[in-house]
């Protein structure tokens, strides 16, 4: 029976077992009122963590060899179990995060949708990357042996969720879904800002493991402090990769730990991004008020607590840019602060805006009003020019929450130069007309080296989960810009290729056997051979 809010236990789930920690107790809190939420969650110790990772290692042999149908059914079962909890999941997440019902209902749909999308990937099987170079015994001067390649899962994976997506970047979120789809058992470090939500989803996932008849070590949910249990998890020799979404500080601490291990492992950390927007003159010839209102909506949605929120906007100097700036001020004045995720995040946002406003050459463009609840500071937009921006590192830092900086530029050359000075970003957004194409052509090569996703029109918030999406980008947007944490390509992070040379057919894994029993598409001598076309 899947757990609901009314029967939360306050315990970790270690390989299917509900286990009380030996350490301190932490409570979630309603950020709108400051009220502590029951139950308290007991934090586990290193021995208890080691039991979870040992179980994950035990589970790896059978889980990594699951056939595509059983594997995909398991992922779909997780989605079904999450939905079966019903509205109590959304209610608990609302209480713990202050996010709205509509936002969390949408996020639940995204979470179950990405699990089902990965199920389709697993059924179809292209991620196994089958390549076959058949033997060429007659080749001269030397014959070629039979070489077959496929990708295998890395081993148990540690996953850390973020506070701002209690479902889609948390217990059964994108990293967990990608790792499980790859065939890797997961040990998930619960986020202490939404412990009850984590337990509800964790139980739904652990139930799916049991219902599918899998080894219980396929999934564990552990409660502990990041700086202690999170670090111990990344250092555990069983763990073969880390998936992380959160702050730059915590992400870098995990990268350092993983690199210092006797056997280093990859860390896929999504960290900080300010998501520059480039407004061109042509885009400001249309409905400037509509553009400004849409921008303010993107900055303030979810209290600005989105990793893709537009924190920087390049606005041309001159009357069109002035009109946009004035319109932003008017649109912002109609907004009110919304409850932020935690008191600490709200305090950090206030400190960040105060610091930015105090910098020489930075001025206030406009503010909304404070919200009616606690931890709901007034949204803010500030302004400066390119020279000031380039001269001061403080202006390049992410302020997590509803704030943005408008940078006035005076020429296309200045804009392209400034773009080249930006740190790595998740996104870069262009608002342009046909008249701007010549400038954009010179800007695009710069942006390709800076960002993981380049948009024309629209706003970067709202990330489609699909096959072509990249939610990644150069450092510090991520610790490894070669990949993505959203979309089906994310599965690649938890796989590695193995080649088999001249193995007898019955010793080969199913994906590589001559009869192709799993009906996989394969690269035969480099040429793609679709399963339906094979003899
Ligand atoms: P966070 O404070 O970094 O926490 C994330 C997780 O890391 C938590 O489970 C936390 O444990 C753990 N942790 C903290 N310090 C650690 C350490 N030294 N070693 C190991 N683990 C540690 O981040 P957050 O508050 O959840 O999220 C807000 C930040 O994430 C913002 O800066 C935002 O921009 C960023 N973010 C980025 C993306 C993206 O895709 N790039 C997406 C969402 C959010 P505790 O529970 O014990 O603190």
Distance between the termini: 46 Å
Number of helices: 14
- Count of structural domains: 2
CATH C-level class of the largest domain is Alpha Beta
- pLDDT below 50 for ≥5 consecutive residues: which ranges? none
Strand order of the largest sheet: 14-15-16-13-12-17-18
| Distinct small molecules | NADP nicotinamide-adenine-dinucleotide phosphate
Apparent shape: globular
Cα gyration radius (Å): 25 Å
By CATH, the topology of the largest domain is: Aldehyde Dehydrogenase, Chain A, domain 1
CATH architecture verdict of the largest domain = 3-Layer(aba) Sandwich
Give me the count of strands: 21
Mean pLDDT: 97
Main sheet properties: 7 strands, mixed
Q: By CATH's scheme, which homologous superfamily of the largest domain applies?
A: Aldehyde Dehydrogenase, Chain A, domain 1
Would you tell me the structural class of the helices and strands? alpha/beta
Classify the beta-strand content into a percent band. Answer: 15-25%
Percent range of helical residues: 25-40%
Would you give an account of this structure?
The chain has 535 residues and is of the alpha/beta class. It has 2 domains: 254 residues, Aldehyde Dehydrogenase, Chain A, domain 1; 181 residues, Aldehyde Dehydrogenase, Chain A, domain 2 (3-Layer(aba) Sandwich). The chain is 36% helix and 19% strand. The longest helix is centred in the N-terminal third of the chain and has 24 residues. The site of NADP nicotinamide-adenine-dinucleotide phosphate has 27 residues, from helix 7 and helix 8.
